[in-house]
Amino acid sequence: MITLASDFGSPYPAAMRGVLCSRSDARLVDVAHDFPRQDVRTAAFWLRELLPTFPAATHLAVVDPGVGTDRRPLAVEAGKHALVGPDNGLLMPAARELAGDAPLACYEIPVDDPESTTFHGRDVFAPAAAAVHDDGLDALDYPAVEDPVDLSFPEAAVADDEARGEVLVVDGFGNAITNLDGALLADRWGEYARVNGDRVPVARTYDAVDADERLLTVGSHGAVELAVNRGRGEEAFGVEPGSRVVLDRP
Amino acid sequence: MITLASDFGSPYPAAMRGVLCSRSDARLVDVAHDFPRQDVRTAAFWLRELLPTFPAATHLAVVDPGVGTDRRPLAVEAGKHALVGPDNGLLMPAARELAGDAPLACYEIPVDDPESTTFHGRDVFAPAAAAVHDDGLDALDYPAVEDPVDLSFPEAAVADDEARGEVLVVDGFGNAITNLDGALLADRWGEYARVNGDRVPVARTYDAVDADERLLTVGSHGAVELAVNRGRGEEAFGVEPGSRVVLDRP
Amino acid sequence: MITLASDFGSPYPAAMRGVLCSRSDARLVDVAHDFPRQDVRTAAFWLRELLPTFPAATHLAVVDPGVGTDRRPLAVEAGKHALVGPDNGLLMPAARELAGDAPLACYEIPVDDPESTTFHGRDVFAPAAAAVHDDGLDALDYPAVEDPVDLSFPEAAVADDEARGEVLVVDGFGNAITNLDGALLADRWGEYARVNGDRVPVARTYDAVDADERLLTVGSHGAVELAVNRGRGEEAFGVEPGSRVVLDRP
């Protein structure tokens, strides 16, 4: 199985599908192709959340502001999974999650003439993903990369009466997903918490508060989310990715 | 085969795909994931229109404003098809259509700790759909549900000189799809009909009238549609789902 | 394998998927369903760019302003590929590309009662694509079409010091893709060229210029593109499909 993810929108992903079908009989499953354009960090977050739901697979992911520069094309072995994409940190959080206790092994995908194309998704990464899937990284004998570009998400600081974290991403519905562990809200359902100084209800479900009312909830990621019932949490809380979120007792 | 439908937008459907691939070898086919958010009625309409085009399959559908409440997770046997989703009426119009003359049988999907997750699509419904597909509802021995939440669409009232119906949904192009049978227009192509008091041309195709001009036509559903050539019928007719539509001789 | 492309948006493509699954075991791969509505020319461009990445397949494509008129439903044999869609030129540029040196053979898909439906994607083209895939055009014995509606893209005029072309399409990111061969920029990376009278940097990558700055680059199609780093080239250059683009030495 090969999964596909990118910020290509439409219709460019079809070119990757075509190349993959031309070179491999692997089953193809789309993850998403509408990641915010050139936003490596947000895409890395989603890959970390979504790829672990899949069985062993080769994961092709391309969000690549550095295409055309000398950034390396990367293949990563992560336990029973492999990842293929640009060496800009995009793959690393997901790779660590997929690898579990296994060590990561990174390789550079050889490219004859990287400047010959501006569409590495079609011309470099899709052919490599087909090869990694069909032949396996061991057989391909790609040169090892010891210093892949890394990317990680900050840890929240949790004290007795206060937790300090930040917004990692905002999803398509406007929910601001933080790095604060949802367990912080575990004994507070139906009560209030103070977020960045404001008193906000803590609820399991959006509909537990009135329409357009703010709430704190725990998202599918197990993390605290700043949300609005039938509205956009990012706007109501005035936050964006990177914004500080301080949670304390009301 | 398992079909997938939801109001999740992107990228959340990938988590359902991943879980399904992890638990079943079933072929996956997407129906749509951009149903209007939390609009059970509109999604139920589309499922009724679209699912009957598929061969025998397990249909996973999630539009679920009640996630986190005590609404039941439901599995429905409908002839050679099965449906899996929330017990809020979403599945019922499609189930009746798929079942034909066969009786419907509804079952509650057992969940150990429904409050442990806010993402029932990934954590409850996708695993259940994989089980229903692979094992069959008979083998699963889920408890029967005698009183599933129902949802149905109103019938139009047709008299000799007047038909009274309503708009059921508005599609992505702005076409207002009614519950009036397209047969009402059968002998009137190229003529005019009176809709809510206005005289409007009856045409088989949008392009039969000028750009921005209103028309009555019959959509893919076999129902009367209020449309505008290269424009949005809902706006030009001033209607929305639930709006009354009275059709009489001009 | 059957590929699917249309301007149907969502959720109508699911009806084609359902019909195809009901009639054939072919693997289905989506190309795109968000081509600009009723824009045959733009869709024809993308099909020409994208379909050649696929292995031998039946390509179902529907952008069909003439549905309901007497335009013919068409099947085209193009080397090892087949195409199915309306006879409005949509399929022809891709068919020529797929056929290579092989001659094209066009056939009319028989339809009992074309006026019985307004959804030819579901009711005419999908069943035909399943038949073409499973049985092959030879066995189907469709009547030959000698005069299919053609569509072609204009050639640029290249002289020593000036190349005159036009914008063919604008992609979803606002890049204006021209019919000027990217080779025209081959020895000018990092320099400037004059486009429609303005001096613009020539760069391999968007990020080679500042945000919001214009550039000339070569797109995945091998053609000159008018672009803006992190912005929309169409707006900054004031062009749209059909706009003249004159490229000369600065």
Main attributes of the structure:
Elongation Factor Tu (Ef-tu), domain 3, six-stranded mixed sheet, Rossmann fold, 6 helices, eight-stranded antiparallel sheet, elongated, 250 residues, homotrimer
Tally of separate domains of chain A = 2
In the CATH hierarchy, what is the architecture of the largest domain in chain A at level 2?
3-Layer(aba) Sandwich
C-alpha geometry of chain A: elongated
| Helix-strand string of chain A | EHEHEEEHEHHEEEEEEEHE
* Oligomer type: homotrimer
Average predicted local confidence, pLDDT of chain A: 94
- What class, by secondary structure content of chain A? alpha+beta
At the fourth level of CATH, the homologous superfamily of the largest domain in chain A is: S-adenosyl-l-methionine hydroxide adenosyltransferase, N-terminal
Name the biggest interface.
A-B, 30 and 24 residues
The CATH C-level class name of the largest domain in chain A:
Alpha Beta
Radius of gyration of chain A, in Å, reads 20 Å
What does it look like?
- Three copies of one chain form a homotrimer.
- By secondary structure, chain A is an alpha+beta fold.
- Chain A has two domains: 139 residues, Rossmann fold (3-Layer(aba) Sandwich); 92 residues, Beta Barrel (Elongation Factor Tu (Ef-tu), domain 3).
- Chain A is 22% helix and 29% strand.
- In chain A, the strands form two sheets. In chain A, strands 7, 8, 9, 10, 11, 12, 13 and 14 form an eight-stranded antiparallel β-sheet that branches. Chain A has a six-stranded mixed β-sheet with strand order 2-1-3-5-4-6, sandwiched between helices.
- In chain A, a hairpin with a 5-residue loop joins strand 8 and strand 9.
- The longest helix of chain A is centred in the middle third of the chain and has 16 residues.
- The N and C termini of chain A lie far apart (48 Å).
- The mean pLDDT of chain A is 94.
- At the A-B interface, strand 2 and helix 2 of A face helix 1 of B.
